[in-house]
Amino acid sequence: MEWSGMSSGFSLHNLRAGALGLGGRVVAIQFLLAALFGLWPGVAVNAQPAGAGADETISRLGPRVLEFSRRKTVRGKPEAKIDVVVFALPALSETQRIKLEDLGIDAARAVRGGSPLAATPGVLRALSRLDFVVHIDDRHLTKMDSTIASYLAALDGGRPGGNPAALEVEVTLHPDLTAAQRQTLASFGLDPQAIAYDRVVGAVATQRLEQLAAQECVLGISLPSEEEQQQAPRLPARIDSPADVAKLHQRGWTGKGVKVAVIDGDFDPKDPRLAGGGGVLYAETVGAVRGESAAGKAHGTAVAAILRAVAPEAQLILLSVGSAPGGNVYRAIDRALALEADVINVSLGKAIPEESFLRGDGPLAQALGRKLAKRGTSLVVAAGNYNRSLAYLPDGGRFDGRRLLLGPQRQTQIRFFWPRRLPDNQVFVAWDDEYAPVARRASDLTLEVREARSDKVVGFSNDNQLGSKPPKEVLRLARPGSANFGKPGFIPVTGGGEYFAIAVGSAMPPQTMRGRALRVGVSQAAVLESPSNAASISAAPYALAAQSLMVGALEAKGGKFAIVPHSGRGPQLDGVPRPDVLARDAGALLRGTSAAAPFVSGVVAMLKSLQPDLKPPEIRELLKRTAGRGEAGGIDPVAAIGAVVSANGNTQFLTAVDH
């Protein structure tokens, strides 16, 4: 996409190609251009379609709209039209408003949240030359994420081979559905009974996705988000309780009578390590779990076995959600509450949250918090193992011209390591922004990934975040050997090295960035070299609820405990520090926060057994108050139990247990 007023050989892509190397000189050029022409070059970049050259000129048009704009007019035949939504920069001049209106666009709507237009190819070409036009979206694809939009665009282009007959999608819905709307959803293959927290997951025929998006009750359609599951080694024949916990068992504190739900990929309910004591009260599959792998089954079984070792007489409820559960986790939480679980354990990390707000006032976090508070259930969640793959930029970086300069030294990029043995990766940027059900968001960032050695563009994205779209950008990368290589929506990465650079830019003027912080991350445990030395967490909304207890991991080193380097830690985007507590992992059995969470859940079960009316916030504060001292101060089960027993009048407790 060429800049208006520049020669035909000068494109934004060419400027960006030199930006990583030129640094401040590019910024100076941008300020000069702005001064000379009065332009903010609002160019939108769509996720690169599979098979497209990485160096082709960046376009503000989606793949379907771009293809349509190239159609030629045939004399004697009426021009075809495509339904689009046009977004413009704020604070348009009178001349700019007139230009839009001459093309049939409501300028006021284009600024506020997008103006609909039935556009001919000629009109699209004219709009694409206007720098104050930021996005031109296909109206039928505006509710879909870029990957699904790319699938449908590829189908239009006669490339159905890479598109399945049906896609498993996660659909976000209006909170108040009528009976007729529920029936309509069922006609698309979505189970109305499976709706949880205004979300439902199901397989929908690819050819009917646009019809689904056109329904008034549908707010968004995306691929189900994946949860990290650490592979577990072969389980030992017996899992012994830690020495300090064993002393509590000898005194009779074993979690007896407490129901603990474990939500994970899959389990072996007949595993002997889960038998005895309270036993497995109930086991159920939530949603469609298709052929879960042996590794996934070992992970869930190991998590449940650790919990059993800490609270041997707790009653286990095992809820399987698969390796890419998306909305199934929310359904499982609801199911656990219906089964009257006192404690719920979720040892699934989140690489890229489905909501990027990462704050407790989002709609899902609040809805979950209300349900948990009503039942008095403690939700214990692993903090994830992504500490080494996230950069948290507390001040939101600094805008300078059109580029976002990250960090105190004002660098323009960060770097990450992507080992060749890992075939898939996801790169994302998310930023803090206030939540509003009908948001009028004006911040809109772009994301670019380059091969560090050659400086070649690997992929670029500028999905539309204006209006009410989630404030995040995601690039899905696939190497040869990946099942996703060559599929629409996945950027093919061939050759090159293992080090890559991430650059973040803006498709809007800098003053529109209202958020306080940015997170840039990768999903495949890659190490970021970042100008910021601050870490961050990446968590699902259920981990942010006021009733949840987020757990980081400790490991034994030289007779002492230290924080596991990759254990998630750092502030939410609203500044709240997480995790809430730290706990030991299970060493060779299961490493990281997946193992630390069930240890805490077992201790919570013992506390609930001793004093059933303990509220989740009280339990959190009790565990924090009685934890060990210092940076690596993990929870102390004996001290926590002792505080409850002593408060009930038994002052001899600590001596009796020989703490």
From TrEMBL:
The keyword Transmembrane applies. One of its GO terms (biological process) is proteolysis. Keywords: Hydrolase, Membrane, Protease, Serine protease, Transmembrane, Transmembrane helix. GO terms for molecular function: serine-type endopeptidase activity. SUPFAM superfamilies: Subtilisin-like. The active site is at 264 (charge relay system), 299 (charge relay system), 594 (charge relay system). The chain crosses the membrane at residues 20-40. Belongs to the peptidase S8 family. This is Gll1055 protein.
